[in-house]
Specification:
The chain is an alpha/beta fold and 244 residues long. The chain contains 8 helices and 7 strands, in the order E-H-E-H-E-H-E-H-E-H-H-E-H-H-E. It has helices at 12-23, 36-48, 63-76, 104-132, 143-147, 153-173, 198-201, 213-224, and strands at residues 3-6, 27-32, 53-57, 84-89, 135-140, 178-185, 235-238. Helix 4 (104-132) links the parallel strand 4 (84-89) and strand 5. Helix 1 crosses helix 8 (213-224), helix 3 runs parallel beside helix 4 (104-132) and helix 4 (104-132) runs parallel beside helix 6 (153-173). It is globular, with a radius of gyration of 17 Å. The chain starts with a strand and ends in a 6-residue tail after the last strand. Bound molecules: NADPH dihydro-nicotinamide-adenine-dinucleotide phosphate. NADPH dihydro-nicotinamide-adenine-dinucleotide phosphate binds at residues 7-8, 10-14, 31-35, 38, 59-61, 90-93, 113, 140, 142, 185, 187-188, 190-193. NADPH dihydro-nicotinamide-adenine-dinucleotide phosphate (NDP) is lined by residues 7-8, 10-14, 31-35, 38, 59-61, 90-93, 113, 140, 142, 185, 187-188, 190-193.
């Protein structure tokens, strides 16, 4: 049985990724924080894709909750060959504001949910990936973490941080056939971009449209596959030509 953990798997990109991994034969652990109904819907879609999964509710920004949830899962799956071989660190939030006006909590919450979560979730999974000599760590960054975006100093810092962490961890684990990559999407049509002026923004995108979650999921699927074993420490943009 092959297991994949997708943080923020209940909606948006995480849901599309969960379905893609299910199609590839993974049992998917769907993490989420609030929206149980959406997580249940993802689980249903995973089953329709011919696989199975489970829901695991925890706040990725709360290190204690993360540890309890992951250690609990590992204790319940103690067979030698049962381990999480793919983790997609996808859960994220944005709290945009000009830095001069940004409340301190919006800085810390965004760093915590989008960056500190990477350490909390991934660290307990590395040993087993190395032991089994196969693992895939895929981190959802953003174009904002590469180019920097006004109104997003908190989000750009978190996403830039995860890109740097991706490169560093990749070097630590490559010998054991564990790859670590980041994906940097541009504008993707999910709840996260609700309220943005799509008509105006798409004029800035050479492809003249927002991307679909399934397009990001296809890239995750490739990076998770054995065929991508020689790609590590990279950041792959998927943005319709917005920034190259
Ligand atoms: P959505 O807002 O559509 O979904 C966010 C998901 O993350 C939900 O499943 C939500 O769970 C979960 N989540 C949020 N906070 C937490 C938390 N503290 N603990 C656990 N789960 C949490 O986001 P997208 O699908 O658009 O974004 C997914 C990732 O892609 C994010 O990291 C985002 O920064 C990144 N990204 C998105 C872009 C876009 O244009 N959409 C562009 C570039 C990057 P629940 O349903 O329970 O609320």
């Amino acid at each position: 049985m092959k297991y994949a953990l997708v943080t923020g798997g209940s909606r948006g990109i995480g849901r599309a990724v969960s379905i893609k991994l299910a199609q590839m034969g993974y049992r998917v652990i769907i993490n989420y924080v609030n929206n149980t109904a959406a997580a249940e819907e993802t689980l249903q879609l995973i089953r329709e894709a011919g696989s199975d999964g489970e829901m695991l509710k925890f706040d990725v920004g709360n290190a204690e909750q993360v540890r309890e949830a992951i250690e609990g899962w590992q204790a319940a799956h103690a067979d030698a060959d049962e381990y999480i071989e793919v983790v997609v660190n996808n859960a994220g939030i944005r709290r945009d504001n000009l830095m001069a006006l940004m409340p301190g909590e919006d800085w810390f919450n965004v760093i915590n949910t989008n960056l500190n979560s990477f350490f909390a979730v991934t660290q307990p999974l590395i040993a087993q990936m190395q032991f089994h000599k196969f693992g895939r760590i895929i981190n959802m960054a953003s174009v904002s973490g590469i180019m920097g975006m006004q109104g997003q100093t908190n989000y750009s810092a978190a996403k830039g941080g995860i890109i740097a962490a991706t490169k560093a961890l990749a070097k630590e684990v490559a010998r054991k056939n564990v790859t670590v990559n980041a994906i940097a999407p541009g504008f993707i049509k999910t709840d996260m971009v609700e309220g943005l002026d799509e008509k105006e923004l798409k004029k800035t995108i050479p492809a003249n449209r927002f991307g679909q979650p399934e397009e990001v999921a296809a890239l995750v699927g490739f990076l998770a596959s054995p065929e991508a074993g020689y790609i590590t420490g990279n950041v792959i943009s998927i943005n319709g030509g917005l920034y190259t």
